[in-house]
Amino acid sequence: MSRFSEVKDLVMGLEGDFEKFYEKGNQAAGTRVRKGMQDLKNLAQEIRTEVQNKKNAG
């Protein structure tokens, strides 16, 4: 479940920047949101690969 925790932590860490960007128009927060979403995409791909490998091994 540590991978799930990583995903949750990443998403929760972006909450403040989402609010700053969407509600206050803070452009720097938008940049952080974009970076965080890219990190989330990369993490998701890593997890998908791990799951596929584990599934195929068993």
TrEMBL record:
This is Histone H1-like protein Hc1. Signal peptide: none annotated. The lineage of its organism: Bacteria, Pseudomonadati, Bacteroidota, Cytophagia, Cytophagales. It holds the Pfam family Hc1. GO terms for molecular function: DNA binding; structural constituent of chromatin. Belongs to the histone H1/H5 family. HCT subfamily. Might have a role analogous to that of eukaryotic histone proteins. It comes from Algoriphagus boritolerans DSM 17298 = JCM 18970.
